[in-house]
């Protein structure tokens, strides 16, 4: 086996936490010995049913103890776990499955229809095993996770095995065209990312960690592994909602969790509504997926009054966090205040010890000699995009440096400042959204001549998705309410929102604001849309109106 394997954390859990509670979900509560036995028996059961080293196993479902066990059990036998985003439409999931060609498909009850459609399809003959998380379902040859475990309880002899090239995880992210890309991540990357979080945030075996992030995202996965390696206790709720999260924090004395601006905004809103006075057990909060506004930081510091709040900057291709910054430390208060006054970007802190960052030349930026592409190098970077040959791998990866796709600069103290995304990628509610994908869907509407999509700053979502739309000559724009469904050749914001959903665009990608653009879009001499100029025009006159 390789020098490092994420399943090696099981030995530490068994040695230090065998009798201690390490996982809680609803009425289910496991100690360390039970969790380790669950992972090992599940691994042996999958092997017994034909899953082999190098195979890809796709998983879709909400957070659960079984899902967490799968994140270790699948790589334990040298297979590769490929979590699917539960917020995808079925059609988007199919694109990902076509990319990785899994040998097994594991799902919870909410996604039984996906399994049924896959079994009926002639396109996925590679899938030889269907497994359901939770209660058994009456579909074909589907077996439950418990059934897979049953014959292999007490397995102790098996040693962890690594897949070729040390790949343990395929984590999906959208490409510039909106098509899902499978980021192949090694055991080594996952281990050093976990150790970085333990070192910087300070996770330990006394921590009680609430899973607010889905286990299909790299942030949720890497933090889960960090807590497993630290020997802490996991509290799992199926998916985030503020009421369930606050209840879990109070009931289980949660000490740490991760957040994105949307989650923090929901927690603060719920706490004000229900007059929650404070959650004093929380000692550590790690924010990612966009910077917390000063308003959110102040609110979080009041609600979680004992918590150190950290912010992280990273990406899936770098196995999550590259830099960290403490947000509510008096020593950085001056810096935090400057962020709203300066135009040099947003400070995202310093790299963790294993991360190398440099600024590469950005040919598109001629205004600053110190600003450029943010590049990173080290064992934390991805093995590559799944299914791509070496020739298809970006040049910046082949020569050792990964281009993050972002632009920024490094100050004299070593802090990284983020200016923006090289190609207009939108970060909304912790999700990556690419304008081109949304524009393609909107442009398919018979009344739309052209659509331009971009993000604008939003205190809750990080960025809110905005669509500027020009309509065809024989169509009419109407300021319609939700009740007005459109008559004849009419287009409205509500009609376009519904159209996006009908076209199977994930809900988090659907624009929230629409502007009827009644004049020519600004373009370059080569005919390309000047997206930033258009965005600036919209920001300058954003108000309750739908035509510009």
Automatic annotation (TrEMBL):
* Names of required cofactors: Mg(2+)
Task: Show where the AMP-binding enzyme C-terminal domain sits.
Answer: 437-528
> What is the enzyme's main class?
ligase
The chemistry this enzyme catalyses reads: (E)-4-coumaroyl-AMP + CoA = (E)-4-coumaroyl-CoA + AMP + H(+); (E)-4-coumarate + ATP + CoA = (E)-4-coumaroyl-CoA + AMP + diphosphate; (E)-4-coumarate + ATP + H(+) = (E)-4-coumaroyl-AMP + diphosphate
SUPFAM superfamilies tied to this protein: Acetyl-CoA synthetase-like (SSF56801)
Query: Which GO molecular function terms does the record list?
Result: 4-coumarate-CoA ligase activity; trans-cinnamate-CoA ligase activity
Keyword Magnesium tagged = yes
- According to its UniProt record, the EC number is 6.2.1.12
Protein name according to UniProt: 4-coumarate--CoA ligase
What is the organism field in this record?
A: Triticum aestivum
């Amino acid at each position: 086996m390789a020098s490092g394997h994420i399943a090696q954390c099981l030995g530490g859990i068994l040695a230090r936490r065998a009798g201690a509670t390490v996982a809680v979900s609803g009425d289910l509560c496991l100690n360390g010995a039970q969790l380790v036995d669950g992972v090992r028996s599940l691994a042996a059961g999958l092997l017994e049913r034909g899953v082999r080293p190098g195979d890809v196993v796709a998983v879709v479902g909400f957070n659960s103890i079984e899902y967490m066990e799968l994140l270790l059990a699948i790589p334990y036998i040298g297979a590769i776990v490929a979590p699917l985003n539960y917020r995808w439409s079925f059609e988007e999931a199919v694109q990902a499955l076509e990319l990785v060609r899994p040998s097994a498909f594991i799902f919870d009850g909410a996604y039984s229809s996906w399994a049924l459609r896959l079994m009926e399809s002639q396109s996925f003959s590679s899938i030889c095993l269907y497994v359901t998380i939770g209660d058994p379902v009456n579909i074909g040859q589907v077996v439950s996770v418990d059934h897979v475990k049953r014959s292999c309880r007490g397995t102790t002899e098996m040693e962890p095995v690594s897949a070729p090239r040390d790949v343990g995880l395929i984590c999906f992210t959208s490409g510039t065209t909106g098509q899902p890309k499978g980021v192949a991540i090694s055991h080594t990357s996952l281990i050093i990312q976990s150790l970085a979080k333990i070192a910087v945030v300070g996770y330990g075996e006394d921590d009680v960690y609430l899973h607010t992030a889905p286990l299909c995202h790299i942030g949720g996965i890497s933090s889960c592994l960090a807590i497993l390696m630290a020997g802490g206790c996991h509290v799992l709720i199926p998916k985030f909602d503020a009421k369930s999260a606050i209840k879990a924090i109070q009931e289980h004395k949660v000490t740490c969790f991760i957040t994105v601006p949307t989650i923090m905004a929901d927690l603060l809103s719920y706490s004000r509504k229900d007059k929650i006075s404070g959650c004093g057990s929380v000692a550590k909060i790690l924010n990612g997926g966009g910077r917390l506004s000063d308003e959110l930081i102040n609110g979080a510091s009041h609600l979680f009054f004992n918590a150190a709040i950290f912010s992280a900057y990273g990406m899936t291709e770098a196995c999550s966090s590259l830099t960290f910054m403490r947000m509510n430390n008096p020593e950085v208060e001056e810096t935090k205040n400057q962020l709203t006054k300066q135009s040099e970007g947003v400070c995202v802190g310093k790299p963790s010890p294993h991360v190398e960052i440099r600024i590469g030349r950005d040919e598109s930026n001629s205004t600053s000699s110190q600003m450029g592409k943010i590049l990173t190098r080290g064992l934390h970077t991805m093995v590559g995009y799944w299914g791509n040959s070496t020739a298809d791998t970006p040049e910046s990866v082949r020569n050792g440096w990964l281009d993050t796709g972002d632009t920024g600069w490094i100050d004299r103290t070593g802090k990284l400042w983020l200016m923006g995304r090289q190609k207009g990628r939108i970060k909304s509610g912790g999700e990556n959204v690419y304008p081109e994908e949304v524009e393609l869907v909107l442009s398919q509407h018979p009344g739309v001549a052209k659509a331009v999509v971009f993000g604008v700053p939003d205190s809750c979502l990080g960025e809110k998705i905005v669509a500027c739309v020009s309509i065809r000559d024989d169509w009419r724009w109407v300021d319609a309410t939700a009740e007005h469904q459109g008559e004849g050749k009419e287009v409205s914001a509500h009609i376009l929102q519904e159209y996006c959903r009908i076209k199977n665009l994930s809900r988090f990608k659907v624009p929230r604001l629409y502007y009827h653009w009644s004049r020519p879009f600004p373009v370059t001499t080569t005919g390309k849309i000047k997206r930033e100029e258009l965005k600036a025009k919209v920001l300058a006159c954003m108000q309750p109106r739908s035509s510009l």
